[in-house]
Amino acid sequence: MKLRILQVLALALIIAGSSCNNGTGNKSDKDSALTTKHKYMRYNANSPGGQKALAAMQKALDSMRKMDCSNVLSLYYQGAMHWIPDTINNNTLCPSYANKSQLKKAWDNCTHVPGIEINFLAWHRLYIWHFEEIVRKLSGDADFALPYWGYTDTTNLFANRVMNEMMRKEGSSLFEKSRFQPLNEGKPISGAIVKALDLKPLMRLKDVYLFTKTIDNAPHGAMHNYIGGGNANTYDIFNPIYNCNCNNTGPANDTCNGGLMANVPSAGFDPIFYLHHSNIDRIWQQWTNSPNGKLVTVDDLKAYPWGYTFFNPDGSEKDYTAEEVIAAIYNVDYEYDDTPTPAEAKDDATKAKKQPSLFLSAKKFADTVVSQKINKVMTDNTISFSVKNDAPKLQTLLKKDNSPKNTIIVMKVSFTREPKGIYQVYINQPKGQALNPDGDYFAGFMTFFGAKHHAQHIQGNTLSATGRAEKVFLFEMTDQFNTTNAAQKGTYEVSIVNEEGKGAAAITVESVSVIVK
Predict the structure, then answer these.
(1) What are the tens digits of pLDDT across the range 345-373?
(2) Would you say the pTM of this structure is higher than 0.70?
(3) Which domains can be identified in the chain, with CATH numbers?
């Protein structure tokens, strides 16, 4: 019994330590490995364990790239499960697929859209977990686990912000030319993307749906666009899945913008996708372990059902119910070299984490303090506007029933071409003060990876006659409102900045609301 108590205490100390850790850099495997019940360890790609895993992954992808695209274990089939273009002319990589009438089982299945987006982290966790099992079998490495690209780590920044050399070696099955060229040349991540890799604002969130939407924007979507074309994506990149050159400067109705990772229908075909999502999964686990973390619930998934169909290493199909999804994502057989995935505890704190998300209820926008049409076009790298405040109503709602409240800014943005830039949003930012995503005035990032794609394919063809699509952003501002006394001001001054300022598609801020939840 004493031994069991000591084991529980040791695990609790590990969890407490990891909850405030945004990355440990390149520890040795001996130093960073955790002693737990989990069978597999996902290592930083730059560590010795990560290098060994990449060698096994390369061996497996040597086989997966040679398989016919109708083979469920092939890289093509696995990539198309994330999504695939509706039409591919002269598809030499998969002659049996030319248009969406020929979709195969479980293709076109990722999700990032409102409501359904609650499935985003859970679906991708199971997607890369099944991929991991396939690689383990085909590589012959019984210990294989997906490494992660630790670009969000706060130590040894240069090493962690350079794509691993094994991913950059031409001729390797891990290499993909259709990326932002400086990354393939071994240059570190730089420019506007760097601020979007700061996890501190993300880790302050206390609702699982709000966390999901926020991590989807940054670092997830921001890194997809960066890997696929840099901060602005203004030059041609040949995309082998679309089988054409893709850029962000041609006609508004062009089919693709940038390399594989910059487009939802081609992202899953680049091997770096799996290291990227391994890191996103790791960040999710860090937040889940933290005091602010909450769990996705069966009720959340049943409110916004989505298909979970994957394939086992023997080629057999696996379909998950909502209950099976929850059981699978919170009882995984792996952990990260700096982040445990503990077995679910049965204490009051964990029970509290099982409350369904506040933002998935039918009344999620019922307590609206302000709702104002803006209709302002952003054509330069900066736009500012005022939103009227109803301070008395806000104070009344905040005091109603004396329960903890969240103050949320809801911003609806429309666009014709899917923007590739990284947009920072600030509320009441003092003039002349340096922009700081970790400061009191920062609301959040806006990125648009897959926004037009999802509007066309998942949200029910919601593009207008002019081809405009919409995306809604939620910014949790409770602490900022209190710190800056924003609730007492007559107006909110909203500023949106795209620091790259080149090649940015014109966006229109349609409306802004403030809600209390």
Answers:
(1) 555 666 778 888 888 876 666 788 889 99
(2) yes
(3) 35-231+262-352 (1.10.1280.10), 362-516 (2.60.120)
